[in-house]
Amino acid sequence: MEPRYAELTRTLIKDIADGVYPVGGSLPSEIDLAGKYGVSRGTVRVALERIQTLGLITRRKRAGTRVEASAPRATEYGPTISTVEELVQYGADTERVVHSARGIVVDMALADRLGLPPGSRWTHIQTSRTNPLSPDYPLAWSHLYVPQDLGPRIRRAMEDNHQALVCDLICQATGRVVKEIRQTVRAVGVPAAIAQSLGTAPDAHALEFVRQYYDQSDKLFEVAVSLHPADRFSYTTVLQRQAPSR
Q1: Domain boundaries defined on the chain
Q2: Span 74-115, pLDDT tens digits
Q3: How far apart are CA 6 and CA 180, in angstroms?
């Protein structure tokens, strides 16, 4: 089920686009929005932070929340990814282009970095993802690693389905189930080799996501390394304090 703050974010974006809240006008207060949409004030606050990131509103103390645009900035995409379902939604909202695929033997450097068994054989697939609203500015460049025996089949499936996540394509082909995704995020510079393809300068600021996919047998079956230029991607997490145990 989609989190309430994500659902409210989509609703507010649609209402702004439809003119319910016109550009130049003000949004109702957090309390009024909470009452109108049947959510908590905290949920409203998170949703407003997300649409502010998209450039739709500005918020100032005592001045309220002003609507600045009727559509998100075309070169920026700001998903909140805290569950597998939200990761799937990210795939559904963007489009993938496959650029290359080749078989590799994992060396020690790659094994240490990605957790792949040294000496094992994998298919290395390079892709990009774009926001359909702004296809000339890729959101990400990805290096995907799948078991070599699945490589040709998954490559064909990726060509047929430009949105589905590769982990889902593998699960459909093999009967696997995604049990766990381990994710590491770090700040990096855009490598010169892909800077032109991303439409950015070499060493420009970027976020790198390394995701390792494990199946129901705790076996690693995919690694995805995705690079997102900082000027067109934001990543939001929500931390909730647990009630103290009694």
Answers
A1: 4-67, 84-229
A2: 444 555 555 666 665 566 677 888 999 999 999 999 999 999
A3: 22
**Which tokens hold the place of 226?**
């995705």
For the chain, what is the mean pLDDT? 86
Query: Which ranges constitute the DSSP H helices of the chain?
Result: 4-17, 30-37, 41-53, 84-93, 108-114, 151-160, 166-174, 192-198
- pTM for this entry: 0.66
Place of tokens 């025996």: 149
- The residues near 82 (Cβ < 8 Å, ≥ 6 apart) are 3, 237, 238
**Closest to 194 in 3D by CA, of 226, 232, 153:** 226
User: Tens digits of per-residue pLDDT, 115-124?
Assistant: 999 999 999 9
In CATH, the architecture of 4-67 is Orthogonal Bundle (1.10)
Q: Which residues pair with 124 in a beta bridge?
A: 102, 145
Confidence check: pLDDT of 54 > 90: no
Instruction: Determine the topology of domain 84-229 in CATH.
Output: Chorismate lyase (3.40.1410)
Q: Do domains 4-67 and 84-229 have the same CATH topology?
A: no
